[in-house]
Amino acid sequence: GGGAGGGPAVYSDVDSVALMEEARDSIVDKSAGTREKALRQMAVAMKASVMEEYMADKYDAVAYNVLGCAKRGKWRESALASHVVALTAMTVGVEHDDLVASVQEPLKFAVDRGKSAEAKACALKSLVTTGFICSTEDSHTLEMQDYCETVFKNKRTPDALRATALSCWALCATALPSAYIADECKKTNLPAFRAMLEHPDLAVRTAAGDCGAIVYDA
């Protein structure tokens, strides 16, 4: 049942599973409004501790349908879908390279081809979060960091996406050897981080400062 007095809904394990089942049925609906509501239901349901067990053999099917929303929906639906993919990664946890592989192309498509800066930023954050949590391969972390670099160095990248790309680059850096950061990243990225400290957008300046600090401290 829902919370009393208009507060946030609190669901039992049984209710959370029922909510997730209902959302999974609705997420393939032709109506964008119905799909959006289903994504919100999924986000609520995934807060329950029972979801770790529930998702153990269903995460791939859930991610597949959610990614369909990321690809075909308008910006709000696409952003919600990316958020639910990241929640899926948090729910299933480490050592799920198959989930990482399945989300790569759809989320990169959303970053590269999306029409909204907010939706593109959500897709990139979800892409890197999923890889950071679920991947067992250092090479994947390097690949994601390189992808973030491509995004934040592109002059056409909108500010909201640029700031997210910098933050995601920093997240990847925390999982890489400090010698690599000190050597390779100092040569290839430090000038770009310094230049972005003069950027008109505060979020970009802040994220660039964080990235520069990581390189200096390595």
UniProtKB/TrEMBL annotation:
Family: Belongs to the IFRD family.
SUPFAM superfamilies: ARM repeat
Protein name: Interferon-related developmental regulator N-terminal domain-containing protein
Chain ranges of the Interferon-related developmental regulator N-terminal domain: 19-217
Pfam families from the UniProt entry: IFRD
InterPro entries: ARM-type_fold, IFRD, Interferon-rel_develop_reg_N
